Amino acid sequence: MALTLAFGLEASSFDDHMAKGRAAIASGDFATAEREYQAALREVHKHPGDGRVPLAYEGLADVAERRHDPAAAEEYLKELLAARQQATIGPVAELPTWLDLKRFYAKHKRWTDAAAAADRLAGIWKECGGGREAGTAQYLSAAGHFYHLAGDYTKAEERYRAAVPILEAATGASAALAQVLDRLANTLTAEDKRDEAEAMFQRATQLPGQARRDYVSFLRKAGRDDEANALEKGQPGFYHLGKGVTAPIATVLGEPGYTEAARKGHFMGTVIINMEIDPSGKPVNIQVLEPLGFGLDEKAIEAVEGWRFRPGVKDGQPVTVPATVEVNFRLL
Prior knowledge:
The protein has helices spanning 2-27, 30-45, 53-66, 70-84, 95-107, 111-129, 134-150, 153-170, 175-190, 194-205, 212-221, 225-233, 260-265, 296-305; strands at residues 249-252, 269-277, 283-290, 308-310, 312-314, 317-319, 321-329.
């Protein structure tokens, strides 16, 4: 009885420290927040295997980022990863931390590190969700994007080429496939493989999405303005931001639901969606650019269909404006 009571008091103490840490963050008192999260961490370390350890490290990493201390934030994220790797559910337990590391490295323009994080995410999805799952393709494409930014075009090309057949099988003629083909074409252009790059651009423009813009730029750089002009005329009739066009402002944002398959598998990630906000503020032409699979893409679309916006405006009149949004799926 005494042991049970003591553990209960420690559990309450952990919760109390975490609550105080969150309150301190809300008030901007980061020094107090750090002390409270450190105290919470000391509580859980008294009990090896306590599943709440990651919560304390998440709080500490959040504080470090808010204090603009990237070195400390990275260290806490690595400690968080180590704690999650001890989970009994396997590599999928690492997903949320690798997602945070990918975001962290991208934010700080550490492109090679971001690519390595995306590679690990692709590996986890392939191992746990099957090699042909859309989530595997998303993170292969993300890794390719980061390698391209790092100037490693060979690795970027490899990742995109690996993603293409997965998306062809998983999503068919989709905006997601168009985006990867477009990214591959840009990498091939950087490698001076212009003929193959153009073939990829042409494939991408035959699919849903907005891949025409990069192909137009490719044609103009080649001095083929007549072809570029003709291609531009076939683009959708919406306005891009700038030159007097204001951005839509969200007024209603509903949370997505989770599928039972994704919940049981502990799968987490972000579905990237491209859409247009029409003059009434309603999302239309909704297309998944970066899918996850497990039914989460459909759940993301369902959520976005219910979103509402104050529309973009040009010359005082509401207009259709394209937008790309993230729909996040995280389990506590």
